[in-house]
Amino acid sequence: MTLATGNPDTKWSRSSVVAVVFLFILFIFTLSTTLFYIFCIRKRSKAQIAEMEQFIGPVKKRVIVTKGLVDPENDGWSDMPSTYQIHVEPIATSGTRRPRLSSDLTFLSDYEIPPDPAWEVERSRLHFVEMLGEGAFGEVWKAILRMPVVRTTTNRGDTREEEVAVKKLKASAHEKELIDLVSEMETFKIIGHHENLLRLIGCCTGTGPLYVIVELCKHGNLR
Predict the structure, then answer these.
(1) 193 CB contacts (<8 Å, ≥6 apart)?
(2) Are 77 and 116 contained in the same domain?
(3) Which is it for strands 60-67 and 111-112: parallel, antiparallel or unpaired?
(4) Which Gene Ontology molecular function entries are recorded, alphabetically (predicted)?
(5) Residue 94's pLDDT is what?
(6) What is the pLDDT of residues 106-136, one digit of tens each?
(7) How many domains is the chain built from?
(8) Which domain holds residue 114?
(9) Cα angle value 49/55/56 (rounded, 5°)
């Protein structure tokens, strides 16, 4: 019986060494490529997040006035606010970006009030003269309203000027004050003409500042 003596040959062949080195280099290359890709993705994501934090698209809100049915047996005076409901809903918009600093605030210019063709007056027809009074969030101005004259055989359809009072909000007003002024405007519409109350002449709505135009009470109080 013959016993094996000595250690077996543990030396690797040349081809085995080349294969191991090649696999190691391939592993290092793959790892480096993966890490570089992850680095680029994170860098781009951070840049996008920074841009989103710095700028935000304009946020618009629409003031919706929903009118209910009027009870013909009701005199129309006891519960006028119940004849309409006012709520605000956001609307999707696209346009010029603005700094994020202002996006945390709500501006009156961010609100849109659907025009009422029966009462709408172009803002360009108003010329503000002087302030008659003001409160915490609102102002009352004396203004000149240029109204078109119906074309007849005796005139050429020129304009006439009328002194009016305009109720408007200050820039510091909030959504609640805007809704209150819209509610007041709708109440004027329901009342119509009454000899003991101020008469609503018109209003300026849409995307600009809200103006409620009433007749000028020269010797009275508009508040």
Answers:
(1) 199
(2) yes
(3) parallel
(4) ATP binding; transmembrane receptor protein tyrosine kinase activity
(5) 56
(6) 577 788 898 999 999 999 999 999 999 988 8
(7) 2
(8) 57-215
(9) 100
Residues 21 and 64 in one domain: no
Task: Judge whether 134 and 168 are in contact, CB under 8 Å.
Answer: no
- State phi, psi for 70 to the nearest 5 degrees: -95, 130
Q: Which residue has the higher pLDDT, 62 or 204?
A: 204
Separation between Cα atoms, residue 63 and residue 135, nearest integer Å: 23
- Residue 198, pLDDT > 50, answer yes
Q: Are residues 30 and 78 in the same domain?
A: no
Strands (E), the chain: 55-56, 60-67, 84-91, 98-99, 111-112, 126-134, 138-148, 159-169, 200-204, 211-215
Q: Which of 119, 140, 129, 126 is nearest to 201 (CA)?
A: 119
Q: Is there a domain that residue 222 lies in?
A: no
**Which amino acid makes up residue 151?**
R
pLDDT of amino acid 58: 52
- 140 has a pLDDT exceeding 80: yes
The verdict on 140 and 92 lying in the same domain is yes
Q: Do 123 and 49 fall into the same domain?
A: no
Task: Tokens for 101, please give them.
Answer: 């600093």
Mean pLDDT of the chain: 77
- Tell me, yes or no, whether 157 and 180 share the same domain: yes
In a domain, 49, yes or no: yes
* Paired sense of beta strands 159-169 and 211-215, if any: antiparallel
The predicted model gives 69-79 an average pLDDT of: 54
